[in-house]
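Subject: Sanity check before I submit

Could someone independently write out the structure tokens for this chain? I want to compare against mine line by line before I put it in a report. The sequence has 406 residues.
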Amino acid sequence: MAVMDLIWLPDTIEVARMGVPVENKAQVSCQLVTAGIDGNVMFWDIRMQKSAGPVGLGAGLGSQPKKEKESSAEKFSSIPATFAHLDLQWKPMNVVPLSKLTGPGLHPGVTISISQQLQIIKARMQNLVSGNPPLIHRSNSSVARQRPVEVEGVNTKFFAGTEDGFMIYTDWKAEKDPESGKLVSSKPQYAISTHAGPIHCLMRSPFYNHIIMSVGGWSLSIWKEGESEILQTSRSSVKYTAATWSLTRPGVFYIGREDGNIDVWDLMDRSHEPSMSQNISSSAITSLVPYKVSSKQSLLGVGDDFGTLHILEVPWSLRQASQNELNAMSIYFERESARLEYYKVRDATRGEAVAAEAPQIPGVLETDEEEVERLKKNYNDYLVMEKDFLVKLGLRKEDDPVKLVQ
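---
Independent answer below. Compare away.
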């Protein structure tokens, strides 16, 4: 099956069996995650496994085959010697199925997003500031023999966009089955059909790690980690094909379209439609990559379906953030999240009230005596209501008796 997306895990953690996050003491990123069209998210490790040789943090990266064991066929092989130990025996460590919540089957995965991506930059910056550079080339056997330590507080949940337009939020860490007691793959926390087409873009905001943008079909949505979408645009007349966040403004993102236009969204200006649209090519936009040259210059790389690369300079109004934009956008996302939560509670309350006021349908096993009593009560209630109505019209007196059925 085709691999639709691939991301590397941060060099601060690694995933052990059953999805348990452990400390990566070597600070070398050796594990990757793939999303396949077969509906499985797989975790891979590029290091040498125990059956193939010594296992150590960074052992696979630094190991070299012995010269005396190299054959003439290996010298002309297309597989680098660094990864020769993976040839014909590389298997995924963990497999997380994107199960459907209703009915059997899996959702075909297209793209994934984990919540630890920003910690890669943060960890490296902290090491550089403290004067301790990352141990990229370290392959000491003493490190390999140390028992891995489980890292607490790591968010093991991730987003997955599917080919059928579903947004799935699930956990890569296995859970215990209450019936059998065995560890099984976690079921998705939710699977929402939000796009009328494959979700080909799933990007986290560079300013808020818990804010994710999904693009697919003719619409885009903005999600909050662990919650449902807090913003969804109306259906566009043209398919969306690419997207990216601005690197300098928290409320700005760019959307590439099938007709070669780029929509510029500025949530500080408006949230129901793009602030502006610019034609770039006569073919579909396939990729958008922002790049910050300096505090006074930002570029946007645009690729189209003809194979042409366009380099655009971002104007000052879309490059320079206002003084309180970071805080204002944070308040905006929290306000939208609170508004949606209010509507959920209100709808649930209204549903309970309607259910309580609904007439009680008699049970299927109602006896003849119970049916007679129910009919008498309903008829007597009607007589009382009729008398009250006639009293209001002045046709009867309040002290007139009501002949109830006994």
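---
OP: Matches mine. For the report I'm noting this point. Residues 325-357 form the longest helix (33 residues).
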